[in-house]
Amino acid sequence: MATENIPVDKPEQLEKIRANLLEGETVLAVFDGKGSGTGFLGLTDRRVIIQDNSFVGKKIALTSVPYSRVHTVSFVSDKSMFGKFASSSTLAISAGGKEYEVEFRGEEKAQYAHNVILHNMR
Length: 122
Known about the structure:
Blueprint (H helix, E strand, L loop, with lengths): L1 E2 L2 E2 L3 H8 L8 E8 L3 E7 L2 E6 L8 E6 L3 E7 L13 E6 L2 E7 L2 H14 L2
């Protein structure tokens, strides 16, 4: 599903991102996370935003990571990637000594997110 040419899985997640934008910041994509830990991953022209649902007491964190703080971005796969860009739909992001993993519903979303983050890393 796309909203205003922005790749989006769930419009309510896009609204959460929009509610927390900085002045002049633009949303690039919002993808729903699969599994119990991550709610979604948002990409803007300035940062990666990860909703983390794994806090004790049913608390939720909305974590912002500026692209300049991302050390690595990679696919997590149990298959060889030779001959194919990726066989996994999980993305791992290392920033500030912490690892974030997001499992996507579709490998094209992981590839898109990987490319946006890689392009914006400084």
